[in-house]
Design a protein that fits this description.
3-stranded antiparallel β-sheet, Arc Repressor Mutant, subunit A, alpha+beta, 12 helices, 269 residues
Length: 269
């Protein structure tokens, strides 16, 4: 996947389909005006002017209940750019954004957002990606400093319940291993718990089974490969460790209602 960094403003009406087309990506979102509900790992958060979130791909962001005047700044960052930008960010930052993901920042980070837009809008520049990564790195440190000032300078993991901790670890594992492993038992074993307990906590926290979470991530990857690569159905089946192409076809139709060829031909989102 080519390095991706996209900056702009939007009413977020078609956010979900747009975000899916750019997976796997992080996104920074900031409410400029209006109001909405920002769903992160299927939990709703009020999103009003001056509020911001830095969202990793495994939090499955979505916007609902958007007001007519809603506008948001966004900075979408592909995994390659994100890895460079977050290379020495404190580990506690990642706990922070999972525990309390929406932060009121007012206009304190406006300068950083303007800088990101300026660099993104530049023409040919062999150093643009490096400059963008460095800016995003500094921006994230500033954001985390404000998070600590707002919510307390202590490890966020201490405020996370036991079941929340298990769920976050599970979704992180799914994001890392879904291509090779689609069975709940693999993830339960990694977490040193039983499949029944894993199912109980994911249903309690996110109202879905572990299998639903795994299958959703696999489906998103299949959609991405169909839209953005010329791989054959057999090559996609091999990449995602399906027994054969027909098994992949049945899985995809069960998840989406479309065949693989229909999805690719119609350019569906």
């Amino acid at each position: 996947m080519a390095a991706v960094c996209i900056v702009g403003e939007s009413d977020m009406r078609d956010f979900t389909s747009w975000w899916e087309r750019h997976l796997p990506s992080w996104i920074v979102v900031y409410c400029r005006e209006g109001e909405a509900e920002l769903m992160l790992q299927f939990k709703p958060y009020a999103f009003k002017p001056g509020m911001m979130a830095i969202v990793p791909p495994d939090m499955f962001p979505a916007f609902t209940s958007l007001s007519g005047d809603f506008r948001a700044f966004y900075c979408l960052v592909g995994r390659e750019v994100a890895e460079k930008a977050f290379y020495d960010i404190p580990n506690s930052f990642f706990d922070a954004i999972y525990t309390l993901p929406v932060l009121p920042v007012g206009n304190a980070l406006d300068v950083w957002m303007e800088l990101l837009m300026v660099v993104h809008g530049e023409g040919e520049n062999p150093y643009r990606q490096h400059v963008f990564s460095d800016l995003l790195h500094a921006f994230t440190l500033e954001y985390y400093n404000k998070w600590n000032l707002q919510y307390g300078n202590q490890p966020a993991i201490h405020r996370r319940s036991a079941v929340d901790t298990v769920c976050v670890k599970f979704y992180n594992l799914v994001f890392d291993h879904f291509r090779e492993h689609r069975d709940t038992a693999f993830y339960a074993d990694k977490l040193c718990i039983t499949p029944c307990y894993l199912a109980m906590v994911t249903r309690q926290v996110y109202n879905e089974s572990p299998k639903q979470a795994i299958d959703r991530q696999v489906t998103l990857e299949i959609k991405y490969l169909l839209r953005n690569t010329g791989q054959t159905i057999q090559q996609i089946a091999n990449a995602l460790h399906f027994p054969d192409a027909s098994y992949l076809c049945r899985f995809f139709r069960r998840q989406t209602g479309f065949s693989l060829s229909e999805y690719r031909k119609l350019g569906l989102i």
